[in-house]
């Protein structure tokens, strides 16, 4: 047995293993590319809404002074300050401080509110919205603004 025969054998085995590894890698990448694409959304006959004839929207009646919320009638407690919401997704307004308080509405990002008070452990703040509604939000999600 010659050294050249042994060398040819080992080179052949090495190239076979390398070819299998590269082929497996290519096949895996192709499969990953095909499996990472979302399939098209199926459509069904009842998915398409029926088109209604366009109607002209009714004009809104003009707001009278009595229709606007009367926020001036409620006095502000000492330490109240104007603020704006800094949480990018907005805030849930609750009827009581704490997670167990029921949701009574929400406040959008950058909306102006009035902070009325903070609870004892400074984790919740009572706010008043521009429409006069009051509720509690998690502290740290509003920042004070100048009037």
SSE topology sketch:
Elements (H helix, E strand, L loop, with lengths): L2 H33 L45 E5 L5 E4 L8 E5 L4 E7 L5 E5 L5 E5 L3 E3 L3
Antiparallel strand pairs: 1-4, 1-7, 2-3, 4-5, 5-6
SSE arrangement, N to C: HEEEEEEE
Beta-strand residue percentage = 15-25%
Largest sheet descriptor: 5 strands, antiparallel
Structural class: alpha+beta
Domain unit count:
2
Q: Give the CA-based shape.
A: elongated
CATH superfamily of the largest domain: SH3 Domains
CATH class division of the largest domain: Mainly Beta
User: How many helices?
Assistant: 1
CATH architecture heading of the largest domain: Roll
Sheet with the most strands: spatial strand order:
6-5-4-1-7
pLDDT < 50 stretches: 63-71
**Separation, N- and C-terminal Cα atoms:** 97 Å
Mean pLDDT: 82
Q: Tally of extended strands?
A: 7
Radius of gyration: 33 Å
Residues in helix, %:
10-25%
Query: What fold name stands as the CATH topology of the largest domain?
Result: SH3 type barrels
């Amino acid at each position: 047995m010659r050294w050249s025969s042994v060398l040819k054998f080992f080179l052949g085995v090495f190239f076979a293993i390398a070819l299998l590894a590269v082929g497996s890698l290519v096949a895996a990448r192709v499969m990953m590319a095909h499996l990472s694409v979302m399939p098209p959304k199926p459509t069904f006959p009842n998915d398409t809404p029926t088109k209604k004839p366009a109607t002209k929207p009714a004009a809104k009646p003009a707001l009278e002074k009595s229709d606007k919320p009367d926020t001036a009638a409620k006095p502000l407690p000492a330490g109240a300050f104007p603020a704006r919401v800094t949480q990018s997704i907005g805030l849930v307004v609750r009827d009581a401080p704490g997670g167990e308080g029921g949701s009574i509405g929400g406040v959008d990002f950058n909306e102006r509110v009035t902070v009325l008070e903070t609870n004892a452990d400074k984790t919740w703040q009572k706010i008043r919205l521009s429409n006069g509604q009051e509720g509690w939000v998690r502290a740290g999600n509003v920042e004070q603004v100048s009037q």
